[in-house]
Write a structure and sequence with these properties.
The structure is a homodimer. The mean pLDDT of chain A is 96. Helix content of chain A is 41%, strand content 18%. The radius of gyration of chain A is 20 Å and the shape is globular. Chain A has 15 helices and 16 strands. In chain A, strand 7 and strand 8 form a beta hairpin. Chain A folds into two domains: 262 residues, Queuine tRNA-ribosyltransferase-like (TIM Barrel, Alpha-Beta Barrel); 96 residues, no CATH class. An eight-stranded parallel beta barrel of chain A has the order 4-5-6-10-11-12-13-14, surrounded by four helices. Chain A has a three-stranded antiparallel beta sheet with strand order 1-2-3. Chain A has a three-stranded antiparallel beta sheet with strand order 7-8-9. Chain A is of the alpha/beta class. Chains A and B meet through helix 13 and helix 14 of A and helix 13 and helix 14 of B.
Chain lengths: 375, 375
């Protein structure tokens, strides 16, 4: 088998698993830090690994523009190029090129678009995207699809989903099987159960190493997203990993694990690190807030990241005020560590049959908010 | 004694020494990375220490504005605040406030100025500056002086130097003696030998733990600077460390060690790290240059820093093109490591009586330039 997935345990819909790749094991539920341009922003790869991250995500769109897939291949693949020897999942570029309003043209064959950097013309299709991901040496290739905009009428969502399913077939055909590498299909269908079902059936008919839930976290809000997640994951095979793309906030992730999702990716921890936001058990805090100015305490009590182990809130507040790069470095590190601690906590709770207690405790603390805000 | 200095060995004018402070030993000749706002830009303090740096410099002007000396003191001093437990030298703020053209007024008492950040009014004098450096818990306090602009007439340079000498006396008087802490005087006198002599005598009369050579590297060029260094260091006591402020490029440093200087500081390695310049044995290279685009080789063969150990020139070129923070992090780290390797090489050569060979080899390689530029 191209990618081996072990489903170790379930608790209601929540699942504990293990995904085996050529570059190592990914314990699920898993969070993948995003390394858009061949770097998880403001972090050394060894720092990313030290947080417990077992897999990262790379972006086909960004890497095909700079430095180009041929160059990455020539340099020995993305793992070697960026000094990350654990698994890598790449998206297909579809989501990014669809977002290039006014710069792209879609037809059945694929998408013509102009680079947002220099206007240079490119073309992406299922075959092109899979070929690029192959050159990058991605462990998990994603199908090239159309992320249906939200909101969409039933008819628009149906047409879009059906094209994505035809592209999924072409993607699978273009994928070269290798041991320890695999390709994931992507379920579409917007917020329509009937379309989600049709999409799931089309993907299962083709057969994939894993199944992603696409077209969510695009503005529909958590409530609507959870409504879809109440049924969509169960439409996908039990014996393969399920990946909710581009999600999300900590409580999105916990809610999605409860509904049977195994894998996540999101720019939030690193992006927040660049805008002075730190995640904590008691909800996010903004370190620019003047109340941190003379605070001796760490950002999060009990966190073992370098920021919380060695520095006060006062210091990171100061760095942030001075626009020092170290603020971004330390906050990004803390945030990724927070996410990976969350996933470790989820996995441990599932392992020990204490997931209900874990979830209750998680929501209780998040709802309390950072205690000092209440002083 | 407040600070103990051991002169271990000399080779012509060059000196090998050891400076003992409360926070540890500084082997000289030493290079001090600059941590302007309580951080060596884009580096964790443990990374700075890993380069071999044994002391860093902090800036009184920047720290008094943000976060303020009282806050740093309240947080346990600068070492604790910024998580750096090795020695710290602070400048006096004099150089920075003198540069605030139009925002400052100087009289015999001191300098009134407005913050470059928010226009808030401040006052610095010898007593104020020494008091701030005390609150920061700096191991090496610098006298508050006037850095004479270049060029200056003999008369202007003389008046300025004489005021600095009166301020040096007040600085010394304001300094609180503590074990493992000390205060350095600063020689002024522009490029006039007679004034340098008068200044040196005035400082020796007051008596300091170390002596800095100020007013150089302010636009006079290397040739004129070396002319002054041909005599100025020898005017200062043999049994105390000599510190050339704000210097410099690698060949400035080697030339100054040859002329009897023991300590250096410069923003160049970190600033260059933010502008894509990397120092190497064969001279600096600019990593943005297209010739690095597909280059598998490290930035500098034989360098043991993380950049050179784990990444190709192609990768750092790519990061730089994408304005990724990791480019700044890795280049700053490499450059500081380059400087500290240079100092380690100088000390080893002095220790082993091979300094002449070292210097010859250094200049030969620097003159060759990065070999690949010649292809």
């Amino acid at each position: 088998m191209a990618l081996k997935f072990e489903l170790l345990k379930t608790h209601n819909k929540a699942r504990l698993g293990k995904l085996h790749t050529k570059h190592g094991i990914v314990n699920t539920p898993a969070f993948m830090p995003v390394g858009t341009c061949g770097t998880v922003k403001a972090m050394l790869p060894e720092s990313v690994a030290s947080t417990g991250a077992e897999i990262i995500l790379g972006n086909t769109y960004h890497l095909m523009l700079r430095p180009g897939a041929d160059l990455v291949q020539k340099m020995g693949g993305l793992h070697k190029f960026m000094n990350w020897d654990k698994p890598i999942l790449t998206d297909s570029g579809g989501f990014q090129v669809m977002s290039l309003q006014g710069l792209r043209k879609i037809n059945e064959d694929g998408v013509s678009f102009k680079s947002h950097i220099d206007g240079k013309k490119f073309f992406l299709s299922p075959e092109e995207s899979i070929g690029i991901q192959h050159k990058l040496d991605s462990n998990i290739t994603m199908c090239f699809d159309e992320c249906t905009p939200y909101p969409a009428t039933f008819e628009v969502a149906k047409k879009s989903m059906q094209r994505s399913m035809r592209w999924a077939k072409r993607s699978k055909e273009a994928f070269v099987n290798r041991d320890g590498y695999g390709i994931f299909g992507i379920q579409q269908g917007s917020i329509f159960k009937e379309l989600r079902e049709e999409s799931a059936n089309a993907l299962k008919e083709i057969g994939f190493d894993g199944y992603a839930i696409g077209g969510l976290a695009v503005g529909e809000g958590q409530e609507k997203m959870f409504e879809v997640l109440d049924y969509a994951p169960q439409m996908l095979p039990t014996d393969k990993p399920r990946y909710l793309m581009g999600v999300g906030k900590p409580d999105d992730i916990v809610g999605a694990v409860l509904r049977g999702v195994d894998m996540f990716d999101c720019v939030m921890p690193t992006r927040s690190g660049r805008t002075a936001q730190a995640f904590t058990e008691y909800g996010p805090i903004n370190i620019r807030n003047a109340r941190h100015k003379e605070d001796h305490r760490p950002v999060e009590e009990g966190c073992d990241c370098p920021l919380c182990s060695n520095y006060s809130r006062a210091y990171i507040h100061h760095l942030q005020k001075c626009n020092e790069i170290l603020a971004v470095m330390l906050l990004s590190w803390h945030n990724i560590r927070y996410y990976e601690r969350l996933m470790q906590g989820i996995r441990k709770a599932l392992q020990e049959d204490k997931f209900d207690e874990f979830v209750e405790d998680f929501y209780k603390k998040q709802a309390m908010g950072d205690i000092e805000e209440l002083k």
